Amino acid sequence: MYMITDPVCPFCHRAESRLREFADKYGAEFKLILYSVHPPVGRRKAVEAVCRGLSAEAYLDGKWKQENVTGQYQCKEGAELIKRTEELVRKMGVRGVPVFYLPDGTLVQGANMPALARALSSGKQHVSYAK
Question: For residue range 113-128, what is the model confidence (pLDDT) as tens digits?
């Protein structure tokens, strides 16, 4: 499933802190899509995450967000990727984050982890298993 998230969004942080638990409990595999609803700071942090080449684990660990080196990790490729992502997410009608898109098209908005748990445990999902 996909999670659209913003590096400086407090609600996203709350949801991100439970992704490992959900992956283990439901066999879910999460793919993160970085998007900013808090420009310019969120956009620069999203570009930083891309330019650092962070793994999902390192991104979710969050320690990188506390480092004051955002200016050192601004690359053309990252800026272009985030720009394309912002265009796509806007076309999808997403106005707030986090947002979860499940394999069957189910949408869970916000850090509503009980709703995500219900969607994952409903048996309707074709969730890929984490490896």
Answer: 999 999 999 865 544 4
